[in-house]
Amino acid sequence: MPVNLKDVAVSAGVSVKTVSNVVNDRPYVRSDTRARVQAVIDAMGYRPNLPARQLRTGRSGLIALAVPEIDVPYFAELAGKIVRAAERRGWTVLIDMTGGERSRERRSAAGFPGDLVDGTIASPLSMTAREVAAVSKGHPLVLLGEKLAHAGSSHVGVDSVAAAADATRHLISLDRRRIAAIGAADEATGTAALRLRGYQQAMAEAGRRPQSELIGAGGLYHREDGFRAMNAMLDGPVRPDAVFCFNDLLALGAIRALHCHGLDVPRDVAVVGFDDIEDGRYNTPSLTTIAPDKDALAEAAVRLLGLRMDGASGAGQSEIRAPHHLVVRESSVAPLSPSGRGRLAAARLGPAGARAGALGLDAARAGGRAAGNRSPGGGADRRGGGDR
Amino acid sequence: MPVNLKDVAVSAGVSVKTVSNVVNDRPYVRSDTRARVQAVIDAMGYRPNLPARQLRTGRSGLIALAVPEIDVPYFAELAGKIVRAAERRGWTVLIDMTGGERSRERRSAAGFPGDLVDGTIASPLSMTAREVAAVSKGHPLVLLGEKLAHAGSSHVGVDSVAAAADATRHLISLDRRRIAAIGAADEATGTAALRLRGYQQAMAEAGRRPQSELIGAGGLYHREDGFRAMNAMLDGPVRPDAVFCFNDLLALGAIRALHCHGLDVPRDVAVVGFDDIEDGRYNTPSLTTIAPDKDALAEAAVRLLGLRMDGASGAGQSEIRAPHHLVVRESSVAPLSPSGRGRLAAARLGPAGARAGALGLDAARAGGRAAGNRSPGGGADRRGGGDR
DNA sequence: CCTCAGTCTTACAACGTTGCAACATCTGGT
DNA sequence: ACCAGATGTTGCAACGTTGTAAGACTGAGG
Q1: Residues of B with CB below 8 A from A376's CB?
Q2: Does A69 reach chain B within 8 Å, measured CB to CB?
Q3: Where are the beta strands (DSSP E) in chain A?
């Protein structure tokens, strides 16, 4: 059933190689021959056999994107952007869901079973630096997220420490006294550790001493974990009046828990997240968050991978820091309500989503503007596509 | 650098074919030979070359999943489940994001460039039945979502008409008088049309005449579209007291718009969605929705694809309807608040998420239970994995 | 008419794997 | 001792493609 070069060649009365040359747009094919062959190709519906081509050339035109969970919004959004960026370079992206399992991460990082892909962009959860280093010689690899110390590989991410400090400073600037953090983990390295460090730095800087009762675990960084951690904290001895959650899902879970306790966000407790996923923009209250420049992350990852694939594999260690900024919305700054009606007035204002510096002062203005043009999200990009 | 069968064979002092037999777990290899060869394989780090294997056998062990947008929660959740279901059968899933573009959908459906994948599960947006039919002979294909009339292909989905009718009946049972629908589209077929039909059927059944002012467009089915449609409707002549949105994102956008108008959900306007994405479970108010059995959908899609791949490709048209049920939460049923504090009392109850029939009556009970054990979601499954 | 360069086309051999059929070696029954 | 069958092992060819080098046409210059 499938048509191959030979079939076309016979039918067009030329050699197999000439057809191949036409398909690959090689020079030294007379234009009338080219036209004739092309006509036959179209007529017979010939399509090149990728495995055979790859066997011969060693290149597949595919790259892998390995993420722990595709159904986590942050990864889903990033994946979408990476697919689009890769497409601009003519590559097809094969998305692999590793579930954070080491063996699957290794498989992806090493280029899938048998060098199926030409390169890999991975966001490793459980791979060690040693494994990454071992695997990455011989296969182009770009790491997404936190840098693994001295893995000798390319790496793209935001400055988690600085970003976490920005988030914390924002809460400090709002005169919150008991600022909690949710998302801590046991490891001494990785996302959790870095964001915790940023939080602690900002606190120290302001002369605040973090209380251990106000540091909650992050679990798997899902909504559920934020919900649980917040509940646990509210049952504890110290009630926080602000929470910095290490990602947006945790924050959304935490907000839900606060509601269940009858607490108002942001009046009783201000909440800040991290990632700027779309859910946060439409939540009520909309979520103040650290917005990594995901477009920049995606573009950089793909570009870096391209370099790795072209140059000698020993292109050395390179690192790109994508910018981030604080987006202030309703969950941290109560809009200026001239009188009563707290929550509803806030809601009516529409989700404020201005690009404010580290200070939350612009938020009220931005809120007013949002109310005017009825934009729910604010401050962030839109995207095409559809559902079903 | 890469080790191949021949290298192993030479090193182990056997023929290439014997090594191949060991790798593929074939019988008729003496156990000591097997052990020796295996040792060499491990020592040399041999890994089979997939393209070559595929060239020879015609099978890659890969299947494609083609969805319009991976960053839409419904697809992301479904993709996760499909990946896990395929894994149980030893297949690797290549996720392709088509953006709803016809050419990319065709490419995926036809098995990617050159039969890279053994089969495809696709959720087509713009492919016509004719194209599907043309492509699907010669390549195993399972369609996800609404059935394309007479495309002669396998198909897996929920009964959209019945489900939409269930949702609408729920609103009718709550004694809502002006029930709106958001998510309509111009096409006479597809998801939008079927859900609209279900809505209309349920209305007619109850002796209600739908008003055209209460039918809103769905656009791309994103939050933004729901936000806009709801705003437009609220600016119109008839203010609805209930809205059935054709997916959850529309519903979340609509709820946000209602808040911005100072309207209370569910007191002033009850809202029902469709898809049961996780966001809806943690939203405030949590979202009443139609929950398709996504596990069943994923499992059925993979199983059906397996049949298509094994049997003759002309396995004929088969169709699987996955079950669905209504999940009643806060956005449609105000919890029994003994006195005042409407919203807050509702929030304190925790998101009710009981599996109720078509009637909303069980919801209050369920809410009480949820408050007890502090489960925010309710009624739905949990999942492993992590963020970063 | 021959040569030579330039342009176009072709045959052949690989890429790494596995199906096939042939061969080799054992075991146990006559 | 011989054979039949079961059990292991092997060489060859093929999957569809492209790089290489060699071949076959052109037309211009000798």
Answers
A1: 223-224, 227, 253, 256-257, 260
A2: yes
A3: 62-67, 92-97, 119-122, 141-144, 154-158, 179-184, 215-217, 242-245, 270-274, 288-292, 319-322, 324-328, 354-355
Q: Which residue is nearest to nucleotide D12 (CA to C1')?
A: B17
Query: If you measure CA to CA, which chain B residue comes closest to A63?
Result: B94
A13 CA to C1 C1' in angstroms comes to 33
Cα separation, B375 vs B327, whole angstroms: 15
pLDDT tens track for B100-134: 788 788 878 777 766 788 999 998 877 777 777 77
Q: Does A343 touch chain B (CB under 8 A)?
A: yes
Chain A closest-CA separation from residue B181 CA (Å): 17
Look at residue A148 and tell me whether its pLDDT is greater than 50: yes
A298 contacts A78 by C-beta, under 8 angstroms: yes
A382's torsion region: left (phi>0), alpha (psi -120 to 50) or beta? Answer: beta
Q: Is A215 helix (H, G, I), strand (E, B) or coil?
A: strand
The answer for A 241-300 residues in CB contact with B (under 8 A) is: 247, 249, 252-253, 255-257, 259-262, 278-279, 281-284
**Pick from B146, B151, B156, B134: nearest CA to B295:** B156
Distance in angstroms, CA of B238 to C1' of C29? 97
**b/e per residue A73-92 (b: at least 16 CB within 10 A):** bbbbbbbbbbbbbbeeeebb
In this complex, the residue with its CA at the shortest distance from the C1' of nucleotide C14 is: A56
Q: B93 to chain A: which residues are within 8 Å by CB?
A: 97
Instruction: With cut-offs at 50, 70 and 90, classify the pLDDT of residue B381.
Output: very low
Quick one: pLDDT at residue B111? 73
Chain A within 8 Å of B384 (Cβ-Cβ)?
yes
Neighbours of B312 (CB within 10 A): 7
**Interchain contact, B384 vs A114, CB within 8 Å:** no
Least confident interval from A129-133, A201-205, B240-244: A129-133
Q: Is A251 in contact with A245 (CB distance < 8 Å)?
A: yes
Q: What are B295-347's pLDDT values in tens digits?
A: 999 999 999 998 888 765 455 568 899 999 999 999 999 765 444 333 333 33
A377–B contact, CB cutoff 8 A = yes
Which helix (H) or strand (E) segment holds residue A26: the answer is none
Is the shortest CB-to-strand distance from A38 to strand D under 7 Å?
Answer: no
The answer to whether the CB of A251 falls within 8 A of the CB of A73 is no
Contact indicator for A243, A179 with CB cutoff of 8 Å:
yes
Are A233 and A250 within 8 A, CB to CB? no
Q: Which residues pair with B66 in a beta bridge?
A: B96, B122
d(CA A287, CA A278): 10
Name the nt closest to B17 by C-alpha to C1': D10
Global confidence as pTM: 0.81
In this prediction, residues A40-45 reach a mean pLDDT of 92
Distances (CA, A) of A14 to A19, A34, A36, A39: 7, 10, 10, 13
Per-residue CA distances from A272 to A138, A139, A232, A275, B235 (Å): 41, 39, 18, 10, 33
pLDDT tens-digit readout, A331-368: 999 765 444 333 333 333 333 333 333 333 333 333 33
> Whole-angstrom Cα distance, residue A342 to residue A49?
64
